[in-house]
Amino acid sequence: MHTLVKQTAISAMILMTSACTVRISEETFIASDKAPTTFTTEFTQKLQQALPDHLIAPVQLTARDNVSLNGFYIDNPNSKITLVFFQGNGMKIEPYSLSALTTLSALNTDIFVMDRRGLGASEGKPRIKNIVSDAQQQLDYLHQQYQPTKIILHGYSLGSFIAADLAKNNTINALVLHGSATNADDWVDEKTPWYMAPFMSVEMPEDFRKIDNEKVVAQYYKGPLLVIAGENDEEVPVGLSEKLYAASKSANKELIIVPNAGHQGMLTEAKTMAQYHAFIDAL
Q: Is the Cβ–Cβ distance between 153 and 167 less than 8 Å?
């Protein structure tokens, strides 16, 4: 799935509007489905079988514009820490997230994950503003319904921008930026071949520029920060994660560069998960 997104991220989602202008639009960049698909009983059973010691609770929220958002709260009975997982572009809970959720469960926290609007089991058309608004509503619901003692926001790829934006305006215990860019302009620069750069200009919605991970960690969020990057990530080059780490003003920050990893598979490396676990234990 991520390979497909990777292959189409530039060719299908960035529209060439002239010989020297590239236009990025929310409609073409943010992956979405034509209609929502309800979670199947088979998938829920597989999730429960993969996590037999956890309570799998479906979550349904109604957004402020009456859009239905759906996901799961995965309750570890031995934990009061909740990891909120914001997925990458096009990454649906069913069928793509069973492996990721199983891997994250090794951290021994509760896990809260929702299909963002317009994808998987959630309704609506995704735009930066409403995705950010939905995420805030999800975080408010988490506080009201489960009262966790600690909250970790884990954002993967596109989801890292949502996690960082929440960290700017909410009290949390840790922020994890995984396969993350600094901001839209840096990402476009990194993805533009050097021989095309002098002949190109880029147009993008202002909302894309407003969600800026580098600005968040440099100016707003100073709590514990974990940055995870793949050494061979071609979709989000490792240099962007290094730049994020360098910009952070946190006194407790850690950068993990996973050897030989691309944009996928960073968390399947045992040493990475051991370091992640140690980071949580130290909170």
A: yes
Pairing of strands 81-86, 253-258: unpaired
Task: Read off the pLDDT of residues 148-175 as tens digits, 9 standing for 90 and up.
Answer: 999 999 999 999 999 999 999 999 999 9
Q: If DSSP codes are grouped into helix, strand and coil, which group holds residue 75?
A: strand
On whether the CB atoms of residues 246 and 274 are closer than 8 A, the answer is no
- In this prediction the pTM is 0.89
Domain with 77 in it: what CATH number?
Answer: 3.40.50.1820
Look at the chain and count its residues: 283
Query: CA angle, 44 as apex, 4 and 93 as ends, to 5°?
Result: 25
Is residue 28 domain-resident?
Answer: no
DSSP states of 15-50: EE-SSSEEEE-HHHHS---SS--PPPHHHHHHHHHH
In whole angstroms, give the CA distance from residue 128 to residue 255: 27
Per the structure, the count of domains in the chain is 1
